[in-house]
Write a structure and sequence with these properties.
InterPro entries: DsrEFH-like. With 115 residues, the chain is an alpha/beta fold. The protein has a single domain, classed as Hypothetical Protein Ychn, Chain: A (3-Layer(aba) Sandwich), CATH 3.40.1260.10. The chain has five helices and five strands, in the order E-H-E-H-H-E-H-E-H-E. The protein has a five-stranded parallel beta sheet with strand order 4-3-2-1-5, with helices on both faces. Helix 4 links the parallel strand 3 and strand 4. The radius of gyration is 13 Å and the shape is globular. The two termini are 18 Å apart.
Length: 115
């Protein structure tokens, strides 16, 4: 199963991380193959900064998930929020436009989830 999680609100980080962890646990219990991608755009890219994720308490969860999922930040949102790519967690991939990445994954059959 291919699943794309979309986050664009900073207040939803705990929920999206919990949703992803629960989904991975289910897939593992059922021995199901999966691909999960998380796309952050809008203000939610702020929490992908190393220092911010540490301060907010999300860094360890993101680090743990990074070996199982692809975590992406929208370049347009980074620019809009004046965030330099060097400030991001090292495993975060930058995509040119979050909305384009979401649309591309949907054309590839990814299920879309936005908590």
């Amino acid at each position: 199963m291919n699943v794309l999680f979309h986050i664009d609100e900073s207040l939803k980080w705990a929920m999206v991380l919990g949703n992803i962890q629960n989904m991975i646990q289910y897939f593992d219990q059922e021995a199901m193959h999966y691909r999960i991608e998380l796309v952050a755009n809008g203000p939610a890219v702020c929490e992908l900064q190393d220092a911010v994720s540490e301060k907010m308490g999300f860094k360890n969860a993101l680090l743990s998930l990074s070996s199982n999922i692809r975590i992406c930040a929208c370049r347009n949102a980074l620019r809009a929020n004046h965030i330099s790519p060097e400030l991001l967690l090292p495993f975060v991939e930058i995509v040119p436009a979050g909305v384009v990445e979401i649309a591309l994954r949907q054309t590839e059959g990814f299920s879309y989830i936005k908590p």
